[in-house]
Design goal:
Length: about 210
Amino acid sequence: MLYDLNIAWSPGTPAADLERTLRFAKSLGYDVVALNHIISGSIPTQPSPITNPIPQLTFPHSPYPGRSSSSPSSSSTKPATTTTTATTTTPAPTPPPLPTTLRRATLVITDPATTNYRLPDHARAYDVLALRPASDKAFAWACLATTDPPALISLDLAAPLGYHIHHRTAMAAVQRGSRFEGKGQQQQGQKRKGGDGGKKQAKKMRVDVAQVKA
């Protein structure tokens, strides 16, 4: 069972609030976080290729799952080194560095038979691609019928799913290389001491079904 920190992002998120939230996550000990852009409804055919609207605030990260972790690790240490130098040479306090930030898209799948979700285009534009099926047919499609297996299959557990999860279908998705994520209800935290206005984001639990006993 794995735990990560997902931070909801939308085009209306102010840049200052986003940076403050990321610095707060870093102060809590998170070295890697994901900015999650949830996309629902019809998928337009343009632009082509798809552009990623999430701002790139840290060094680019290799898409998940990456074959090599040396480049992101070395890149993520550069801001920390620069910050340390600035702190020792200037008396003014410097803000904490930003964590390594992945840019993620979560596509809400309703009817794969009639909608082209442009999965290859989204996979190229974002670091992490997750599918959130909204029906039994959408769940089976996400697990079995996509050309390339998605990195994550996200289940919204904040409310009843409305369909049953078949064990064989889920295990077939795991064998293809996908992981399952259980999304809990988002909890709003209190302001940090010092009045920076940062809000705690909900933790999302990724469950590797291969490790769950049948």
